[in-house]
Design a protein that fits this description.
mainly alpha, two-stranded antiparallel ribbon, 3 helices, extended
Length: 77
C-alpha cells in the first residue's frame, strides 16, 4: 500500500514502541473533532492524536516560538 507523502512522512518508523502515556483533558468540541478525524482516516484515536501533535510541533518550530514577548530565531532549513 502506498501512502500519500503527508501520511508516509508522519508514519512512525517500524519497530517504534510507545511506552509513555499522556492524559489530556479535551473540551467536548475538540474531542468530537478528534473522533471525527480518526474515523475519516480509519485510524485509532491515539494515532490521530499523535499525528496532530506532531504536525503542531513542526508548525510551531517552523514559526518560531515566542517567549515572554520575544521571538526566538527560526530553525534554519
Amino acid at each position: 500500500m502506498i501512502l500519500p507523502w503527508y501520511i508516509s512522512a508522519m508514519a512512525p518508523k517500524i519497530g517504534v514502541k510507545y511506552t509513555d502515556y499522556v492524559a489530556l483533558r479535551l473540551e467536548p468540541e475538540m474531542r468530537k473533532k478528534l473522533l471525527e478525524l480518526a474515523e475519516q482516516e480509519e485510524r485509532s484515536i491515539g494515532a490521530m492524536a499523535r499525528i496532530i501533535l506532531r504536525e503542531g510541533f513542526e508548525a510551531r518550530e517552523a514559526k518560531g516560538v515566542r517567549k515572554k514577548g520575544k521571538k526566538l530565531p527560526q530553525k534554519e532549513m
